[in-house]
Amino acid sequence: MYVGRFLVVAPGLAGYRVSSRSFPNRKAVERDGAVTVLPTAEAEPTDNPYVSYNCVQEVDATTAVIGNGSHVDPIAEKLGLGYPARDALALSLLALDFEKDDYDTPRIAAVVGAESAFIGTVRRDALLIQEVDEPTLVATYEADSPEPFPFDSEPADAAGIARALYEHEYEHAVCAAGVTVDSDGVELAIENGE
Question: How far is it, in rounded angstroms, from Cα 58 to Cα 111?
Answer without folding.
Answer: 10
